[in-house]
């Protein structure tokens, strides 16, 4: 391993955040910005302040294995971002991505073949693994990073029974509405700042003879999941974060009147024949339209708005400019009132299956602002972190920058994707099926939610 960085601190600070990144072969203008086409720097161009990792001892020649659901081509930026850590410590990080991650991780843990670290995208799965006794608590150095650089809600999602196990890693923001800036400008439309303004805009577009919204919830065996995001976003806005938490934890019935109101509010858009489904068909077409195709009618002017997460930027055809003055852009799904909009999102958490010093050092690195800024600069569009030490200018996509700004807004309430927190038979079963029927067959709201309530496991 190249050990030239051991014990040194860089002389160049990225974004003024105290993130030690030494540029060894490129100009600062190449690092601070970047186009939406990909990362703007190579990981080998960075060196870390290695002092935080020296306290774990001499790690030269040690190996850390990482197991994750992040596969080709998204895996390479992760692998590249580990190079500075490897050069600092002498640790060899071995990365393995699998499309069968959730099932295979459980099998590996049960058979005594657990990786050193796994990137777990569902807090519910983390809790299941903690119950096996295989997951070890996070080191105090990683916990200190999370306390300093993350909203406390993120630490809670990595905590089980009051013990902190898993630091957050990447994140995605789901509360976005995609639109065409040029269409809005030509029509004289303003970006709505409240839910009522968004409905008024929808009415105005519908009165012009156009369909304001396009949507699709088809996704193979996972058909229905985009509708869960709609419901979760609206529960946050109509009932508030506390009720959202009670609902997700089943402290109130799934068909509580507040949840009925929220789904009816969603229905005011998705089941309104005057509003949907622009360029795709009638209301029922939402159930059969692939979610990846659902926003595309914006490009030909047959749809005006599409609610989908920041990661939807990868679904626009090659050559589509994603920018505030480009072909498409997005605005935050507005709050009911004029306050900061709640943010719905997801992410991964780093869980360790041993407390070896090399494993703990790597966990600490991944929880640091240093790693977040390096990862941002070696990645293309579609990756962001809620680490507040991340300089948003290091992200290569304006949508990722907007997502990071939402995560870093101290006034915004963040909540994790509710269906990912619920038992699998509910969040990835009865709820998907119920919401699909709600659209495809116009099944009444209360019947749908009562059926999901009845599917909740007894214990």
Automatic annotation (TrEMBL):
Family membership noted in the UniProt record: Belongs to the bacterial solute-binding protein 1 family.
Give start-end of the signal peptide. Answer: 1-28
Record-given protein name: Carbohydrate ABC transporter substrate-binding protein (CUT1 family)
**Classification via InterPro entries:** Bact_solute-bd_prot1
Keyword annotations of the record: Signal, Transport
Task: State the superkingdom.
Answer: Bacteria
**Organismal lineage:** Bacteria, Bacillati, Actinomycetota, Actinomycetes, Geodermatophilales
């Amino acid at each position: 391993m190249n050990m030239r960085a051991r014990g040194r601190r860089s002389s160049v600070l990225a974004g003024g955040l105290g993130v030690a990144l030494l540029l060894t072969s490129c100009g600062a203008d190449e690092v601070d910005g970047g186009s939406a086409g990909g990362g703007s720097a190579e990981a080998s161009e960075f060196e870390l302040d290695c002092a935080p990792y020296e306290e774990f001892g001499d790690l030269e020649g040690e190996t850390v294995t990482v197991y994750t659901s992040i596969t080709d081509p998204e895996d390479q930026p992760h692998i590249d971002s580990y190079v500075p850590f490897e050069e600092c410590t002498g640790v060899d990080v071995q990365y393995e991505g699998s499309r069968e991650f959730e099932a295979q991780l459980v099998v590996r843990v049960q058979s005594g073949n657990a990786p050193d670290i796994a990137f777990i995208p569902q807090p519910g799965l983390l809790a299941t693994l903690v119950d096996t006794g295989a997951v070890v608590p996070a080191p105090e150095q990683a916990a200190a990073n999370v306390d300093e650089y993350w909203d406390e809600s993120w630490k809670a999602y990595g905590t089980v029974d009051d013990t902190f196990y898993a630091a957050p890693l990447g994140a995605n923001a789901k509360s976005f509405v995609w639109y065409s800036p040029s269409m809005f400008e030509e029509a004289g439309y303003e970006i709505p700042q409240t839910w009522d303004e968004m409905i008024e805009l929808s009415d105005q577009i519908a009165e012009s003879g156009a369909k304001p919204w396009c949507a699709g919830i088809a996704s193979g065996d996972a058909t229905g999941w985009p509708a869960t995001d709609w419901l979760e976003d609206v529960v946050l806005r109509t009932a508030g974060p506390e009720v959202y938490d009670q609902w997700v934890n089943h402290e109130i019935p799934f068909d509580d009147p507040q949840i009925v109101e929220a789904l009816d509010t969603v229905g005011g858009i998705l089941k309104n024949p005057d509003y949907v489904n622009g360029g795709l068909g009638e209301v029922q077409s939402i159930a059969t339209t692939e979610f990846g195709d659902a926003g595309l009618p914006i490009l030909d002017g047959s749809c005006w708005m599409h609610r989908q997460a920041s990661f939807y930027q990868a679904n626009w055809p090659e050559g589509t400019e994603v920018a505030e003055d480009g072909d498409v852009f997005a605005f935050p799904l507005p709050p009911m009132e004029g306050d900061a909009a709640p943010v719905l999102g997801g992410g991964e958490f780093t869980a360790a299956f041993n407390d070896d010093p090399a494993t703990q050092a790597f966990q600490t690195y991944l929880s640091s602002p240093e790693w977040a800024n390096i990862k941002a600069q070696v990645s293309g569009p579609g990756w962001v972190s809620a680490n507040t030490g991340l300089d948003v200018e290091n992200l290569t996509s304006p949508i990722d920058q907007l997502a990071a700004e939402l995560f870093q807004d101290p006034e915004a309430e963040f909540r994790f994707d509710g269906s990912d927190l619920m038992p699998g038979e509910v969040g990835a079963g009865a709820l998907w099926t119920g919401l699909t029927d709600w659209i495809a067959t116009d099944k009444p709201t209360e019947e749908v939610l009562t059926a999901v309530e009845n599917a909740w496991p007894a214990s």
